[in-house]
Here is the input.
Amino acid sequence: MNAPLLQVAGLTVAYRRGEGWVRVVEDVSFSIGAGEVLGLVGESGCGKSTVALQLLGYRHPGLRVEAGRVTLNDLNLTGQNLTGQNLTDLPRAELDRLRGRHISFVPQNPTTALNPGMRVGAQVGESPRAHGDAADTDPGALFAQVGLPDDQAFRRRYPHQLSGGQQQRVCIAMALACGPDLLVLDEPTTGLDVTTQAQIVALLADLRARLGMSMLYVTHDLTLLSQLADRVGVMYAGRLVEIAETGSLFRTPRHPYSKGLIASIPQAPGNAGFGTRPLRGLLQRGALPPGCPFTPRCDHARPGCAETVQRLTPAGAAHQTACWRASQLGHEPQVAAPEPPRRAPARNETLIEVKGLSVAYGTAAPVVRDVSFTLGIGETLALVGESGSGKSTIARAIAGLLAPVAGEVLLRNAPLAPLVRLRIREVRRRIQLIFQNPDASLNPRARLATTLRRPVDYFFPVESHHSLQLAQKALDQVRLETAFARRFPDELSGGERQRAAIARALLARPDVLLCDEVLSALDVSVQASILLLLQRLTRESGIAMLFISHDLAVVRLVADRIAVLFRGEIMEIGTADRVFAAPFHPYTHALLQAVPKPLVRLADRAQMASAPVGVPPAPGRGCAYAGRCGWKPDKVLCDTTMPPWQIAPGGLRIRCHLTPEALSARAAETLPEEILA
Amino acid sequence: MVRAGSMAAGYRSLWRQMPLSFRIGALMLLAHLIVAVTGPFWAPYGYSQMGAGIPLSGISWHNPLGVDQLGRDVFSRVVHGSPIVIALSLSATFLGLVVGATIGLFSGYVGGWVDLVIQRLLEALISIPFLVLALIAISAAGVEASGNPVLVVLVVALVYAPRIARIARATAIDIATRDHVTVARLRGETAWSVMRRELLPNASGVLLVEFALRAGYAPVLIGSLGFLGFGMMPPTPEWGLMISENRAMLLVSPVTVLGPGLALASLVVGLNLFTEGLARVLGRTVRLGSL
Here is the structure.
């Protein structure tokens, strides 16, 4: 192999925290070869983004590089040869010439990264203009390169007129504008839908094949990385604990942390078990031992671990790990998964019935159309779909935050008032909503005790004299220390906050929990533990759950039944086993294909990138999915006639013009082994 | 003994964790308060005592801030005025804050036509120039009430309340969309309970800063009222009034306005630094020691 394109050696970075400095990155070294894709993975707060920003020589008054070098090979800025020059020491003017042209950056959130007041065509031209070669750049060619329409009308659009995926494509086009050697991507797909995410990853893989560009891909999603990266570095608490070729890392992870991360991946259909051993504990920055930072959470820790700093040492071909016990530990990536014990089948009593529900925001066209389903006592029903499919809207309508324009919701066969203020206290108590973002759902200025006692005081005034004990009991139930009652939400981690939010909902002693994307704001290892908690709670107390998620792998683990939504209409509904087996609705099939699977390269799934994007038919006329469907039996029929409900074996209901037999046949044609494996 | 020592050490470490602006502001305010409380006992002259020096004679050891046109010692007048200015401005601003925040939070949280009506009323109040509004209020109160400090407080509060209400409303609208407020609404809490438990604690940072800004400008408002003959009456050593009185002599003796001007400026800056620092302490996520 030739000399690497970029080398990072002993990088140590600290942030100002109050009066002192806290090291967030310690002694990180790696290199990226020409045309290589290196992935950096780790939980939030492990310093991976900080490392990524240092590759661009990022400086900030609250940040200092205490040691280490970042060097580029073959670096020639106008008139100077800077090969081997430390980027973190470069003067500002030279950094300006370097950024964009040699190394460029794709940020996490395209919505905030793009200037909302500037047309996208002009934004893409900014970087070439800054580098003084405005003449020979054509935004059209760049747009075509990232799979965007290159007509004038598109260039004149503003960022808010684009979808999230299109915005991220614009960001990538901006980063490519000056033909950089290295692309640094900081969680570029985190905020996107599964299908869009798959398309962006396919685009990156394609760009890399065409342009031979090097990339540093920072993410918390190990599965996604396995599809794109040549090598993966695992970071924990600011240290690189393992770096290896992707296949080698997945098959034989050496470091206990990597093993834990890989075991926390919710497996796609086929490998039902997951989180065989979800990582225990949490990254606590304040209480790290001087030696190996992972010691407090490590199952294999020995007394020496906490004192001795672990350095990366070779462990096999192109594999380095920072654990002195690595060779003594087994190689098995995960222990065989014990199937989580299924709950006793739900009693056949209906708790909530949704009949012909349609919901609209203001006077716009309804975002949820004619949705009907039932939720039994103690049952878990999952609503799955991409963002904008109306799944959260349904939860909000059931909770009484939005009045339906048509249809009704029944609780134990009694119709519910449309809005929460018209409902009686008893009904409000029985339905509890848990939100996606625990940062926002807890009052930041109230101690947990105050927050948790309120539902008791409000719903059970008789018991308010011992509401504190009840609050502590609830904390215990969600596996939080009772001492947490005295804390404010900002003294908790994201996962702990979500547990507190769950405890608050439980204190109302509800019949049903509406869980609105409760996992998507959390780290993978934390997701696993929250999921286990929810499973246990619903099983123990017989609470029904409406579980809303875009993540099929997660849904499969909790749901008894699944409803797949597209543009506000249910496409398929049935028991979990049936939904995940043929026959599929064409949309369910597409969703399942988009779920990233470890070590399944995207090349095998190339058609994802070119999924037809058509104009949806007018709402209420024809099949909602007709615009994107690749299996259409008859174009006119699908576009104009509402498809009937097809009843497949096992009570599975699919809304499609194709018969279940035909759908099974179509599913068998495309990648049968992958889906049914 | 040991315990007292550790308490002192605890306070010292807490003090060190505070932002610099908070510490400077707190020291400036403390100095002002000490002067306001003890000043009348040690001021070299009375506030209306003439013959302290040659009128408009400038700075000297004897009259550190000069002498005004009537031969009164400006330093003594500033010291005597301190409790008056501080008490009037703070109570007027506080009254305005309480009324304004209540109206604003309610209007922002409830929304709909209630909000619409309240906002139009507030806009009408704001659109009337301050002095005209003050004149209307004072003439409504009657001539005999003129010069009464309670009336001054009420008038300044009337001017401030609608302005503070608008800020409070904007904050309430922002906070009301957060999920923890939705949780309270789903529980069926009353508007008053939501305002008290969910909105007010989270709006307190904004409201505190607003309080400091307004409190800093209040002495100026009170001074203008005095200048027009509707506020405090001479010879009250109110700083704004003193600046107004000596404004005509600015070219002859610029020093005479320097004293009240500096006092006013340091009070305003101190208040602002203090509240800005306080807002950061209240709003930020670090833990402040274990006390």
About this structure: The longest helix of chain A spans residues 194-211. Chain A touches chain B at residues 17-19, 399-401, 420-421, 423, 425, 428, 431-433, 435, 437, 440-446, 451, 454-455, 458-459, 490-491, 504, 508 (CB under 8 Å). The first strand of chain A starts at residue 6 and ends at 17.
